[in-house]
Amino acid sequence: MDDARATDLLGNARADAEAALRRLRSEQGRADDDQTDSSAEAEDLVVTGTDEALEDLLVRRLEAIERAQARLSQGTYGRSVQSGEPIPDGRLEVEPWAELTVEERPSG
After folding, report:
1. pTM reported for the whole predicted model
2. Cα separation of 60 and 53, whole Å?
3. Please, what are the domains in the chain?
4. Angle at 101 between CA 88 and CA 4, to 5 degrees
5. What does the pLDDT read at residue 42?
6. Contact, 83 vs 101, CB < 8 A?
7. CA 21 to CA 58: how far, in whole Å?
8. Tens digit of each residue's pLDDT (9 = 90 or more) over 42-79
C-alpha cells in the first residue's frame, strides 16, 4: 500500500474513533445527570458496562492508530510487528491499524 493511501486510511480511522469517543463521553455525561428510579437501575448498570467497554475499545483503537502512524513514519507500516511479514493490502484497507497478519492474530 502506498504511503498516501495509508495516511488517508489512518487519518479517517483516527477521526472516526475520536468522534465516536466524543459522542460516547457526551452521552455518558448526560446519562450521569439524569435521575433514575430503582426500576431502571439494572438497565443503567448494563448500559454503563457496555459504554465502558466501548470506550476502552475506542481508546485502544486510537493507541493502535498512533502506533501505525509511527510505523508509517519509520517506513515499517504494512509489516507485522511480530514477524516482519507483509500484511496484505486488503486487510489494511479494512483495519489500517493492523499490527499482525491474520495468521498471527491470537484466536479467541
Report:
1. 0.78
2. 11
3. 3-33+41-104 (1.20.120.910)
4. 40
5. 47
6. yes
7. 6
8. 455 445 557 788 999 999 999 999 999 999 999 999 99
Grid coordinates in use for 25?
463521553
Q: Give the whole-angstrom CA distance, residue 37 versus residue 76.
A: 54
**Secondary structure in 3-state letters for 69-81:** HHHHHHCCCCECC
What one-character-per-residue DSSP string does the chain give?
--HHHHHHHHHHHHHHHHHHHHHHHHHHHHHHHS---GGGHHHHHHHHHHHHHHHHHHHHHHHHHHHHHHHHHHT-TTB-TTT-PBPPHHHHHH-TT--S-GGGSPP-
